[in-house]
Design goal:
The protein is an alpha/beta fold. The protein is about 35% helix and about 20% strand. The protein has a seven-stranded mixed beta sheet with strand order 3-2-1-4-5-7-6, sandwiched between helices. β1, α1 and β2 form a beta-alpha-beta unit. α5 runs parallel beside α6. The protein binds S-adenosylmethionine. S-adenosylmethionine (SAM) binds next to α1 and β2.
């Protein structure tokens, strides 16, 4: 499985702990806000607005500690989501979870890049669909998902999933 957007590795840790046979590819670029696209910053997502490089480094270090704890089961690939996706052969993953740039352009780009990397019968999904928390603007997640899929399953905590067929 690939998790795109790992921050400190909290979800990664949860997944690795709960699924002992899982192999997890953890993808993140760990950048400060000045290096993030305008559309991502416009979502007001905290993670697009980090100004403190030391804090971002700490997030990366925490994620590395998770990967180290699950050596052989977890690997970190640092870089821009779509560029990282291109390094993998098509139909490589059983599942991909998108939790990175929550702008419409970002989610569209991530679905375009990662969907071909999922095996037939596998799953692609992501976070923050229909999350109407007024502090953020995550409305683009729904628009991007609807542009790619006629229907998706909705899970807890604003997650969405689509079977790849
Ligand atoms: C919401 S956080 C991830 C949270 C994590 N999935 C969890 O639940 O613990 C979003 C992360 O996506 C990363 N990110 C945003 N846009 C990205 C991109 N285009 N490529 C790679 N990483 C990106 C950010 O650096 C940030 O760490």
């Amino acid at each position: 499985m690939a998790e795109v957007g790992v921050l400190r590795g909290k979800l990664s840790d949860y997944l690795l702990r709960r699924a002992p046979g899982l192999h997890l590819t953890m993808v993140d670029n760990w950048l400060t806000t000045d290096q993030q696209p305008e559309a991502y910053r416009a979502t007001r997502d905290d993670h697009a607005l980090h100004t403190d490089a030391a804090r971002v480094e700490r997030h990366k270090r925490d994620a590395r500690a998770v990967a180290d704890r699950y050596r052989g089961q977890a690997e970190i690939v640092e870089g821009w989501s779509a560029k990282v996706a291109a390094r993998f052969p098509d139909r490589h993953f059983d599942a991909v979870f998108l939790d990175a740039d929550h702008s419409e352009a970002g989610v569209r780009a991530d679905i375009t890049a990662w969907l071909p990397k999922v095996k037939m019968g596998g799953w692609i999904g992501g976070h923050d669909i229909d999350n109407e928390d007024p502090r953020f603007d995550f409305s683009g997640v729904r628009r991007a998902v609807d542009a790619h899929f006629s229907a998706v399953d909705l899970g807890d905590n604003f997650t969405w999933f689509a079977r790849v067929e």
